[in-house]
UniProtKB/TrEMBL annotation:
Keywords: ATP-binding, Hydrolase, Magnesium, Nucleotide-binding. Belongs to the AAA ATPase family. BCS1 subfamily. Its cofactor is Mg(2+). Residues 417-429 have a biased composition (Basic and acidic residues). Coiled coil: none annotated. It catalyses: ATP + H2O = ADP + phosphate + H(+). This is AAA+ ATPase domain-containing protein. Residues 417-436 are annotated as: Disordered. The keyword Transmembrane helix does not apply. It comes from the Eukaryota.
Length: 436
């Protein structure tokens, strides 16, 4: 027992001596340290990513540790520094950067410099590094597609989102839609992108909501891709069914970056957000002290806060997009003007939309000269067919364009669809005559 007490006493004395030694070392050390963590609570620290970009851009000719990557086959090999410590120099001052990872996985950049350069570093060098990093990021920015991870995979504020490079080629030029409607949407997007001062003036968060609705295959996902490419914004594809409650929803929201499009596709199918909710009978579970831990409890009020409540202001220049095939199933409070500012109906293929598809797939610039166009125009007026189905019939077989063959295939498909829709309509009318 005496030996145990002696060892414990010695240990405490050693720890105390170490703390005293560290105190005096720090007290008299001529060096200053500044830490830049990757995140602050649940919000991304944009200075961290700017510093990472800046240090990664430093010349690699003198570096002994490099890493190579090739994102696309068409691009050359990219070499970057792969060093824990990086030395820099600024107006005669020597600076050392070091990437540090804590026991809980939190990453941060540690900046070390001599105390005599404190004013130079804090007033001039750090702002220079951050701005330089942001400029480099803007020049080489690659649009990314993010999707949320289940909360069981979160490590504190990390790993909420995973991403890949977004390489969808959609553009408004190739989007099958009436030109006037397309122009209206593009003008609205440009006004939003340039509206920072306006939103500040009227006292509203710099965000905008778009509701895309219409039958399947009418181009809702393609519209989102075109919007992202047009604005050069990242896409956050929010999977509501992977979120357990409103608190997790808020954390995910605050972890998204500005200049982004937050998307909830098929919102009528994601969670029960309809006006007439069917309340589950939980009495039996409560009596037994049981609850379904995996049950999704994201509520309508939680989602409304996400759209235009207090939490919607956690980030600037953000677009929110909902898509649905069944507009009538959504709660009116969710899609009212002011929350979903612009309602965009993406419906069946029109003749104007067809001409764009003919240009995309068949390289037909002078549309009206082709003799089969008049027949297609007549059929499109009477037939409900999605742009996706029209595109499928126009697509070249074995990459060999056959204009007449593709147009005739489309005409056959339209006639078949038209006959089917007429038969359904007649059966419905006969049914009403019998029971009416």
């Amino acid at each position: 027992m005496a030996i145990k007490e002696f060892l414990l006493s010695s240990f405490h004395q050693l720890c105390f001596a170490q703390r005293v030694s560290d105190y005096f070392t720090n007290l008299f050390s001529p060096y200053v340290e500044i830490n830049f963590p990757e995140s602050d609570e649940y919000r991304l620290n944009h200075a961290f990513s700017a510093i990472e970009t800046y240090l990664g851009s430093k010349a690699t000719d003198k570096s002994k540790h490099l890493k190579g990557s090739q994102v696309k086959e068409s691009k050359g090999l990219v070499l970057k520094r792969d060093e824990v410590k990086v030395r820099d120099e600024y107006k005669g001052a020597h600076i050392w950067w070091e990437i540090v990872t804590s026991a809980d996985g939190e990453r941060s950049y540690k900046l070390t410099f001599h105390n005599r350069a404190r004013s130079l570093i804090t007033d001039s060098y750090v702002p220079y590094v951050v701005e330089e990093g942001k400029c480099i990021e803007a020049k080489k920015k690659q649009t990314k597609l993010f999707t949320n991870n289940p909360s069981s995979q979160w490590v504190f504020s990390h790993n909420m989102w995973r991403s890949i490079e977004f390489e969808h080629p959609a553009s408004f030029e190739t989007l099958a839609m009436d030109p006037e409607k397309k122009e209206e949407i593009m003008n609205d997007l440009v006004a939003f992108r340039n509206g920072k001062d306006y939103y500040k003036k009227i006292g509203k968060a710099w965000k905008r909501g778009y509701l895309l609705y219409g039958p399947p295959g009418t181009g809702k996902s393609t519209m989102i891709s075109a919007m992202a490419n047009f604005l050069n914004y990242n896409i956050y594809d929010l999977e509501l069914t992977a979120i357990k409650n409103n608190s997790e929803l808020r954390k995910l929201l605050t972890a998204t970056a500005s200049k982004s499009i937050v998307v909830i596709e098929d919102i009528d199918c994601s969670v029960d957000l309809t006006g007439n909710r069917i309340k589950k009978d939980r009495n039996s579970m409560e009596k037994n002290g049981e609850q379904d831990k995996d049950e999704n409890t994201v509520t309508l009020s939680g989602l409304l806060n996400f759209i235009d409540g207090i939490w919607s202001a956690c980030g600037q220049e953000r677009i929110v997009v909902f898509t649905t095939n069944h507009l009538d199933k959504l709660d009116p409070a969710l899609i009212r003007r002011g929350r979903m500012d612009m309602h965009i109906e993406l419906s069946y293929c029109t003749y104007e939309a067809f001409k764009i598809l003919a240009k995309n797939y068949l390289d037909l610039d002078d549309h009206d000269d082709h003799p089969l166009f008049r027949k297609i125009k007549s059929l499109l007026k009477e037939t409900k067919i999605s742009p996706a189905d029209v595109a499928e019939n126009l697509m070249a077989r074995n990459h060999q364009i056959d204009v007449d063959g593709s147009l005739n295939n489309l005409i056959k498909a339209l006639e078949k669809r038209n006959n089917s829709q007429r038969s359904q309509h007649e059966r419905k009318n006969n049914k009403f005559r019998i029971f009416g």
